[in-house]
């Protein structure tokens, strides 16, 4: 029985699994998106999101904790400098998994995992937020006020 064992071993020994996740996390931080299998993407999401949370507060202790997992100085530097600045106001959910279909060779279920704030396609529509408010009363008075201000601006010129 495997009660209470939530870690997906991914068919690897412990050291191999940790090294693979560290390498994948470094690639994700440097390239902002990578293609992998769905199982590895889900394991990577659990591995990398706590590190991104730690990177929001730039202390020596947090840098050492993240470096002990990632083991690449360049990736740690980029995580604390660039990625932390982009995700500073986000309370969680820093990565997104998009399923891509099956791989041709072995029919493995493939996915793309990416950092959410770095995808301009998804963020383009959400960047513009309307701040106008419509009310039932006085809706016609506002355009009249706009024409009055335009007329006064034309008189000043």
TrEMBL record:
InterPro entries: Ribosomal_bL17, Ribosomal_bL17_CS, Ribosomal_bL17_sf
Biological process per Gene Ontology, one example term: translation
GO molecular function: structural constituent of ribosome
Keywords linked to the UniProt accession: Ribonucleoprotein, Ribosomal protein
Domain of life: Bacteria
Segments of skewed composition (Low complexity): 141-151
Entry keyword Ribosomal protein: yes
Positions of the UniProt region annotated as Disordered: 126-157
Record's compositionally biased regions (Basic residues): 131-140
GO cellular component, one term: cytosolic large ribosomal subunit
Stated family: Belongs to the bacterial ribosomal protein bL17 family.
PANTHER family registered for this protein in UniProt: LARGE RIBOSOMAL SUBUNIT PROTEIN BL17M, RIBOSOMAL PROTEIN L17
Self-association and partners: Part of the 50S ribosomal subunit. Contacts protein L32.
Protein name: Large ribosomal subunit protein bL17
